[in-house]
Amino acid sequence: MSMTDTQDLLAPIREQITEVDNQLLTLLAQRRGLTNQVAEAKIKMDKQVRDQQREEQLLVKLIKAGQAFGLDAHYVTQLFHVIIEDSVLNQQALLAERANPEHSQPLNRVAFLGNKGSYSYLATQKYFSRRAGELLEIGCQSFNEIIHKVESNQADYAVLPIENTSSGSINEVYDQLQHTSLSVIGELTHPIKHSLLVATDTEISKIKTLYAHPQVFAQCSHFLAELSNIEVKTCDSTSAAMMRVNELKSDSCAAIGSEAGGNLYGLHAIKSNLANQKENHSRFIVVARKAVKVPLQVPAKTTLVMSTVQKPGALVEALLVLRDNNINMTKLESRPITGNPWEEMFYLDVEGNVQDGPMQQALDELKAITRYLKVLGCYPTEEITPTKVAAASALQDS
């Protein structure tokens, strides 16, 4: 059978698939609209955004219904986990917007590291896709410049990477938070997928120079160790690395960054999944000049900075305050205090809302036993844990 005959057979089938895909998109948009109506009702009824019992019941029904169509439980569960996560995040964004009308504006000026194609750029696009108003992107070359843009009212928000599952905390950002009056108003976790990006039709064996951000090199150290006679050149951002490779258009140079970002610069990937850890994610925070109020229906996280008195067990004593008030700590980071040798500032992320009783009690107790305590921000958490369906496998066999 000739290629022309094969194409003639595939063409009508592909047209039907395209038609079904368009129907799916229409239905997904319709479903999202209905979940926004649910959010409006929850505002009036003062109900929690998440009802995991309802989510589990929904998944069980969908798994049973899917079986009738020959769809396995895993496929249905994975698909609706994504749909439910989208629904929860959209509802949270709507509730947060209603609680903070002063933050709603027709134009969101957002500062981030690098230019189009950087991981911070992709995170910015992701976060503000759920927020009202147009997005004005302000690319910067350093964390200091990003913070200054917001402090001087040249930008409304900043998106800053704070930690990575492979390379750990980004200390420079913590140091910037120590000296700014800005508040943390949001967070998001973004998957980081490093690829080897080139501008020409070349091979890995021909690459002699690699461009990337220092954090990226740290996250791909195992891959770099496999290469020989490679010169590593650091850049201020992944987008700067991609721009450089695009300018050079040489068979012997490459950048490490996201494939999606590389496409914006005419680059293509010749090897993917370069990170030491295949499940590689970066957590970003969003900061602004004014703090936000988080409705009690929305799961919240609070970021604190504190210094303890200089005595044995002082930090343990502070952490016991959190335990005694049943507050879960998700992050503890220490950074040196500038000008005070051997003294440290501690950054804590805890699950809780500053408007809630236990958090208020904990903050009052911490103020009494620490030398310095400041709330850097209380904001909606965007870490949506998928609802588990214990009976999924049994349902599949029934």
TrEMBL record:
PANTHER family: PREPHENATE DEHYDRATASE P PROTEIN, PREPHENATE DEHYDRATASE-RELATED. It catalyses: prephenate + H(+) = 3-phenylpyruvate + CO2 + H2O; chorismate = prephenate. SMART domains: CM_2 (SM00830). NCBIfam families: CM_P_1 (TIGR01797), PRK11898.1 (NF008865). GO terms for cellular component: cytoplasm. It comes from Neptunicella marina. This is Bifunctional chorismate mutase/prephenate dehydratase. PROSITE patterns: ACT, CHORISMATE_MUT_2, PREPHENATE_DEHYDR_2, PREPHENATE_DEHYDR_3.
